[in-house]
Specification:
The protein has 184 residues and is α/β, with parallel strands linked by helices. The chain has 6 helices and 5 strands, in the order βααβαβαββαα. A hairpin with an 8-residue loop joins strand 4 and strand 5. The relative contact order is 0.19.
């Protein structure tokens, strides 16, 4: 299986960081192409994108000031195939990319992605600490395998991210209001 390219450039509003390409995305050659992955609909419904996009349109995301990358670039059928060395290498490479491109916001698509990157437990939502000068938001995973949060809960988090990215204040206590904020 072949990995996915990074869609990154300087001056982005936000970089979205996924875990690693799943088998369906690697086969299709596009981000979030797995059956049941709700990433693209959530991006539009939340206001992150002004028009609906499909996985085949993933490179166009740069036109909207949004970048895409993964913590681990090697595709796999599941998390159990990811080795400790993959995470170690991924943390270093991702850190370099985030520092180089200096987005205003870094959003992690899934609590586990941020936890593997930072090495500490977290909750969904806006994080207190910045990374490389950027605000950090941890989203619920959009994977079709994540059924911990409802679609409505996921959409609420994506709307909070959209507010942050578009320069609107994120409501105080938004993390607590987004039902299921501590789960993934």
């Amino acid at each position: 299986m072949k990995g996915l390219p990074d869609y990154l450039k300087d001056g982005l509003k936000v970089i979205l960081v996924g875990f690693n390409p799943g088998e369906a995305s690697a086969r299709a050659g596009h981000y979030y192409a797995g059956r049941g992955n709700c990433f693209w609909p959530l991006m539009y419904e939340s206001g992150m994108l002004p028009e609906p996009l499909e996985p085949e349109d993933d490179r166009r995301i740069l036109d909207f000031g949004i970048g895409l990358t993964d913590l681990v670039k090697r595709p796999s059928r599941g998390i159990e195939e990811i080795r400790r060395e993959d995470f170690t290498e991924g943390r270093v490479l991702l850190g370099q990319k985030l520092e180089q491109h200096a987005p205003k916001v870094i959003a992690f698509n899934g609590k586990l992605v941020y936890e593997k990157f930072s090495g500490r437990p977290t909750k969904l939502g806006m994080q207190k600490e910045k990374l490389y000068g950027a605000a950090v938001y941890v989203l619920p995973s959009t994977s079709g395998q994540n059924n911990t949060e409802t679609q409505a809960e996921k959409l609420q988090h994506f709307k909070q991210l959209a507010s942050l990215v578009h320069g609107q204040p994120v409501a105080k206590g938004a993390n607590a209001r987004a039902k299921g904020a501590g789960r993934e």
